[in-house]
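Q: what does this look like with flavin-adenine dinucleotide bound?
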Amino acid sequence: MDDRRADVAVVGGGIVGLAFAWEAARRGRSVVVFDRTPVPQGASVRNFGMVWPIGQPPGPDHARALRSRERWLELRDRAGVWAAECGSLHLAHGPDEDAVLREFADKAPAAGVECTYLPAAEAAGRFPAVNPGGLRGALHSPAELAVNPPAAVARLQQFLAEAHGVTLRLGAAVVGVDMPRVRAAGGEVWRADRVFVCGGADFETLFPEVFAAAGVRRCKLQMMKTRPQPGGWRVGPHLAGGLTLCHYKAFELCRSLPALKARVAAELPEYVRYGIHVMASQNDRGEVVIGDSHEYDADISPFDKAEIDDLVLAYLRKMARLPDWAVAARWHGVYAKHPDEPIVYAEPQPGCVVAAAPGGAGMTLSFGFARDWWDAT
Ligand SMILES: Cc1cc2nc3c(=O)[nH]c(=O)nc-3n(C[C@H](O)[C@H](O)[C@H](O)COP(=O)(O)OP(=O)(O)OC[C@H]3O[C@@H](n4cnc5c(N)ncnc54)[C@H](O)[C@@H]3O)c2cc1C
């Protein structure tokens, strides 16, 4: 059989692979995308669907998240992907959490992050999903988007094929790259000038030595969602609490953060043990998506822990009031993460680029990474 040919071949039809494919196609390249599963199954369909610039450190990372956000809004307008400009609300219950929110609201706008501190009464008054009990204050940010990951990723694949003529080879696992050839299971071979390997948390199939050398880790997150809330009830902004302030690097600009971290470590060891921080988003179906925990490498079990879900729900009940708390689905996802870098790039063969491990920010940053990579080429 003759080899088939494309300018660019992408291995992995999750958000990272699709972002690199889209940016290539926008620049007039012919593109083929391979994914081993016929329907997306990876981290890109298992997440909250939060496009979350507020979690990125002010400066280049935050700016990249905003560039990514532009692409999501373009997808909304051109492809009909549901992307709601819901914003976000961080809720403070302890005085130390409140101190971090006030300090962030004081410092971050000067660094280009739009956000406002809201006194408790105003936050609870404006946003009925907020539980006013014990609330001290909140940080409101308008930049965050909500997408529905399974629908968004499936639609993005379709859109790339329809609008840009991208060839989709779904259900085709790539078993070898030997530039310029890409070999799929079953003997299908393509030639490409440029290959992107965006296989998510698969470290074994292609270039295992790259992942080992980079020190990439796997992280498991437990998630839940409710039934659709009754009567079209909406959460409004994404919700996050005090634990989230300890999670995202953005808040490290606050001098008040170490005191909060120390108190959390002393008072909430079970949350720290499982890497729990609690967030909630709502999709277009009205389901509230709730999570999450962070367990790494050898701690990753195929069996989920009911204890984690209980801790997450108990914490969320302090933050939020939902009309219907019934959990309709539980699942976990696994992503790849580098301890320090926002994404791992490697070029194991000339023209073959491994782009992987955006950690917990792939929905937020992937379009930005891909834009930046192609702009720099
Ligand atoms: C529970 C959870 C919640 C999260 N919440 C958020 C959030 O709200 N906001 C946010 O910004 N980020 C979030 N993230 C992070 C985000 O989901 C990930 O960073 C992102 O999805 C990673 O995308 P990816 O394309 O690298 O991986 P994946 O989505 O896993 O895609 C990799 C794809 O490659 C395919 N593949 C692998 N090997 C091969 C091969 N050899 N041949 C063919 N195909 C192959 C796989 O089948 C898979 O489809 C969350 C992650 C999880 C797990």
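The chain has eleven helices and 20 strands. The longest helix spans residues 60-79.
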